[in-house]
Amino acid sequence: MPESTLLMNVEPAETRVALVEEGVLAELHVERETDRSIVGNIYLGTVSRVMRGMQAAFIDIGLERHAFLQVGDSVRPEDMKALGGASDDEPHGSLRVSKQTPIGQVLQAGQDVLVQVTRAPTGTKGPRVSSHVSIPGRYLVYLPTLDQIGVSHRITDDAERQRLREVIESLRTGGGYIVRTVAAGKPREVLAREIEHLALMWSDILDRRSGLTPPAAVYSDLDLALRATRDLVNDDVRLVVDDGDTFVRIESFVRKFLPEATGRISLHEGHEPLFDAHGIEGLVQRALARVIPLPSGGTLIIDHAEALTAIDVNTGRFAGGRDLEDTITRTNLEAVAELASQIRLRNIGGLIVVDFIDMERAENRDKVNRALQEAVQRDRAHTTVNQISDLGLVEMTRHGTNQGLALQLCEPCQYCDGTGRLRSRATVCCDLLREIRRKAVLVRAPRLVVECHPEVAALLGREYHHPLAQLERRLATEIEVRDRPDFHLERFDITGGGKHGQETA
């Protein structure tokens, strides 16, 4: 596999990390000093409300919005206390609560709980949390409340998977572990040191918890620079950072935890900005676009809703192929590679619905579906792809923990309030004329003053001049239109006026 590059651009207010694979921007991560990610952070919280009908509870962890905890992600408090008091040589079983367990048997309002953020707040939703803590290391993820061993699906060699399971099983004294991809081929002593380190981290978290009053932060994950180094640098990835202080921090971290990666870290010293030198800046803007052009002339249209992301595939100006079905299939196959790349780059999580162009033949639908299944394999986030329907729809789910790139770098439009739509000027004019009739009955003034946006005022004077004149005759009232440049397009005010321009209430 060709070598990949991790580019780390560090500014005083913002850190950006770009993963470039085979010359293509595959991932982009952004973290700001004023808006650090809380995913992975552990809090001592208080149950603020138990929702028995939803089998869930809201937890006050000291943030603006209370966190959401489902019963299946909770641990009974007596089990957590026993876990905290157990010695390292006393293994425990899984503390998982069944999804069918009544929430009232597990959580009560006012109860203190230790939780970890598993999904960042999005839109109107608060963060998602779990009592099943996971502590990531370089090679392993420690699950102190569970009794299971999982191995990354990216490790495909059956013999190596079995070896890793046996090594972890022989080393662990309690809790569960997930073996990460970079653990493949690592000797027993390396994994033993990691298990010891993770156990000490968990012990420290429990010690800190005992001295805190909720709501309080107990543990914060590494910042983006060190987190990306831990998770992304391997034998096929080299790191280039453009900040001297961050380079020193990373070097120290690597010497301690990733000594095999010491020679893969370098400092960018050129005069040209790092992202400019590698052609990344323009790709960042493309990652925020709604319409993505395909090489042959087709397009992808990406729209985000509260509960899902919709991706529409269009042929655009592409007209090649022997027949219509061939053209459609080729466009869909071309779209597969791009949409898999965009989903990963934009870090789109949750439900994703892809509307491919309708294909009549089942073998073509199968071909596109297989291509999509293969395309998402490079994504580190777990992605499930359902079969393509007769209507050309594919439902996908992707495990996303942080906010997507669009939510992170953009905010709702202050003019349209995030709807992406405004009532047309003609609609505003018609609404305004109806409101004049209502106002005339209430005010009964000889003159009405209408204040509105200049574009609406211009349309009233041009295309709605006759309806306005008819209203004046019918109501026996003079109507004066004044443009207000400071008004929103949809806003208008109507007040009563006296004979000489003095307005009445």
Which key features would you list for this structure?
26% strand, 25 strands, Aminopeptidase, six-stranded mixed beta sheet, 505 residues, six-stranded antiparallel beta sheet, alpha+beta, Nucleotidyltransferase, domain 5
Give an account of the 3D structure.
The protein has helices at 77-85, 158-171, 188-210, 224-232, 244-257, 274-277, 281-286, 324-346, 362-375, 405-409, 425-443, 454-462, 465-475, and strands at 4-10, 14-21, 24-32, 42-51, 56-60, 67-70, 112-119, 128-130, 135-136, 140-143, 149-151, 176-179, 216-219, 237-241, 265-267, 291-293, 299-304, 308-314, 350-355, 383-385, 393-398, 447-452, 478-483, 492-497, 503-504. The radius of gyration is 29 Å and the shape is globular. It has four domains: 4-35 and 223-282, Nucleotidyltransferase, domain 5; 42-219, Nucleic acid-binding proteins (OB fold (Dihydrolipoamide Acetyltransferase, E2P), Beta Barrel), CATH 2.40.50; 290-408, Aminopeptidase (3-Layer(aba) Sandwich); 425-504, Ribonuclease E, catalytic domain (Hypothetical Protein Ychn, Chain: A), CATH 3.40.1260.20. It has 13 helices and 25 strands. By secondary structure, the chain is of the alpha+beta class. Residues 85-92 have low confidence and may be disordered. The strands form five sheets. Strands 4, 5, 6, 7, 8 and 13 form a six-stranded antiparallel sheet that branches. It is 32% helix and 26% strand.
